[in-house]
Amino acid sequence: MTKVAVLRRYALLALFGFTASLSVPAQSVVLEGTGQAVIRNNDLDAARSEARRAALREVALQYEAEIASEETMTNGVLTDSRLTVASRAHARDVRIINEFQNGNLLRVTVSADMSAGTSCGPGDARRLRKQVAVTGFPIVRPSEAAIGQLEDAGEVLPQVLKAALHQAGQLQVHGATNMQLFNDLGNAPTRQNFDNTLTNVIAVARELGVQFVVTGVIRDIAISDPSAWGSSVTARLKRGVGLADQNRRFVADLMVYDGFSGSPVYQERFASTAKWDAAPGESVGFGSNGFENTDYGQAVMGLIGNMAQAVDEALACQPFITRLTRVEGQKVTLASGATAGLRPGDELHLYRSYSFFDAPGATPELRDSGVVVRLDSVHPDFSNGLIPVSGGQANIQRDDMAIIW
Length: 405
Fold this sequence. Notes:
Layout: H1 3-11, H2 15-19, E1 28-38, H3 44-63, E2 66-74, E3 77-86, E4 89-102, E5 105-116, E6 131-135, H4 153-168, E7 172-176, H5 201-208, E8 212-220, H6 233-241, E9 247-258, E10 264-275, H7 289-292, H8 295-316, E11 320-328, E12 331-334, E13 347-354, E14 365-378, E15 383-386, H9 391-394, E16 401-404
Parallel strand pairs: 6-7, 6-8
Antiparallel strand pairs: 1-5, 2-3, 4-5, 8-9, 9-10, 11-12, 11-16, 12-15, 13-14, 13-16, 14-15
Helix pairs in contact: 1-4, 4-8
């Protein structure tokens, strides 16, 4: 079996987790929330729709929200602070119970029957295929890979992972398996800049045109008892009668990073121990026939399937974000199109991207512009839409962000 065939075969491992779903009864409650929007060009319907969405976001956060606060101190001084809020609540029976207009400001209050959800529902960012790059998984101690000639694990493992993600069809997956993100493998991914970002995640994501970067580190690939693989008669005899400890360890850290901010989205350690029963010379690389035929190889490939499932689940409810590549008057061009699942009529919120001269290496700050683009022309790799005011008037520029939550 060729290496390509092995990659295709093990890509199917991830599908079992992707197709499973659970139905869990959840308690529902009716809540009220208020949102507001600016009326532009006398378009009351558009303002009402925007205010209604803002009110629903408030209701969702009232019902079920996950709030993460993270601060970074340098020499006793707060150098970075960020707050992340996420909700997976589902709304039913949504009604506008109050509407108030003051000049060009519209305030809407809604009531909704809210229930918890274990996954994102249809009509939100989950239906869109976010772009992901899978980079190399370097081995912390390459000498551990000598037995079985597994030195290529750092490139083959992410290739198998990429194939599994591609087979599942939930993401647009790009391969960059020869690229390494970490300069210090011993501390990866704990060694970060003052602004809590890895040194080159943002640059890599921008270069590859992706929203997320999937990477990792192989911590341990060593055999449990090196003496069991000696060339002496005693060692060979012990192996032959099953008295030698032929187990081999596999430990890998999987990390997913947001490509626009460099912030970690997901991190988990995957580990297994299984019998390495390949005779000398039978295994000629990670994913080879000899590797595949060992209990260890099958256990490791199963772990990679679990990794693929974990990546898909971690990104399922993340917002869909794409860059603006051109702004001409009221016409806006986005860097994503039909292959991502965008369709004419989709509406995306535009966010301004701010960088500050006193912090040139810090994460760009996103601020809601209050402007929504409605797509009217969608191509495979880009799309066009119109905004209610000119880009110059709203200060919308190239490299700002368009987001669907």
